Amino acid sequence: MLFHVTMDVRIPHDADPAYIERLKAEEKARAQELQQAGTWRHLWRVAGAYRNVSIFDVADNAALHDLLMSLPLFPFMEISVTPLCRHPSSIHSDDR
Ligand SMILES: O=C(O)C[C@H]1C=CC(=O)O1
Question: Which reaction does it catalyse (predicted)?
Answer without folding.
Answer: (S)-muconolactone = (4,5-dihydro-5-oxofuran-2-yl)-acetate
